[in-house]
Specification:
By secondary structure, the chain is of the alpha/beta class. Helices cover 44% and strands 22% of the residues.
Length: 142
């Protein structure tokens, strides 16, 4: 799995479009549900998953604790990575770097930011490569 991370509108999508051929986008921003990624994974194109913070926000209310939410997303990432290896088909995660150290005032926003950060760290650990994008520039950090 490849991970591309950066701030909002930093050029993450453009970098992927420039680097890759045919792409299937699975996006929370287009109301795609995370578990439905398997439908697009079956196509011949590369799969890109984006909008993790939106999926986290929606799932925040389905679980009793933050740890349960984190564990749910860790399991999702593990499953995606397993199928990627089994089918030798590349998957790219686009994740948003949230806050740059600024702590939101509202508890819900803090929870989303915190969980997103933990999920991002987990994805970075699992990724074969990690690219950081800012102002349209990209740096490979793993």
């Amino acid at each position: 799995m490849q991970l591309v991370v950066g701030g909002a509108y930093s050029g993450k999508r453009k970098i992927i479009r420039d680097q890759c051929g045919e792409i299937s986008w699975h996006s929370a921003y287009h109301n795609d549900l995370l578990p439905d990624w398997k439908i697009k994974f079956s196509s011949s194109s590369m799969l890109v998953l984006e909008g993790w913070e939106d999926w986290i926000k929606k799932d925040l209310y389905l679980y009793s604790t933050i740890d349960e939410v984190k564990e749910h997303f860790y399991q999702q990432i593990d499953e995606i990575c397993e199928l990627e290896k089994m089918h030798e088909k590349p998957v790219i995660f686009i994740m948003l770097e949230m806050g740059r150290g600024i702590v939101p005032l509202k508890e819900e926003e803090r929870s989303i930011r915190d969980i997103s950060g933990w999920v991002l760290q987990y994805a970075a650990k699992k990724a074969e490569s990690v690219q950081y994008c800012w102002h349209g520039l990209v740096r490979t950090i793993k």
